[in-house]
Amino acid sequence: MRSSLGAHALALVLLATGCRGKLVATAELKDAGSTEVHFQSTGTPLVLWADIKGSWRTDSSHPILPVHYDVSFFANRTMVGRTSCETRPSDHRVCSSMVTVGSQTLANCEDRLACEVPKLPPGDILMRVAGTRGGLGLVVMRNMSLNARAE
After folding, report:
1. What is the CATH code of the structural domain delimited by 23-150?
2. For the chain, which residues make up each domain, given as ranges?
3. In contact, 51 and 131? CB cutoff 8 Å
């Protein structure tokens, strides 16, 4: 019975990891601010995921930690597109941990963002990210990086 449980747990981890797509780039942000990262585009469509770790006061208006991103993409020093995204409740969430006690939630989750990434040409891409945190319910922010994943 024990090995069967272990096999099911491993299958769930592999399924959760696979549903997000291949990680192409991570723009590291520990808190609000800006950063940039270079990656090699293959021209494959990308999806952005917020990699959030923190704690906040949960209520009906803040079921997840509110974070906003402004993202610009450059190829050969020319802007090829931009998008703006924010975390929202979604069925596309993968959490390594999430605990709610009373009205406070502590979580480490990756949330798929509902924003469209422009079509990027193959080659070197610079992704410039500015992240802000919203809501008055924030208690602690430990990470708010942005992941670009192949769709």
Report:
1. 2.60.120
2. 23-150
3. no
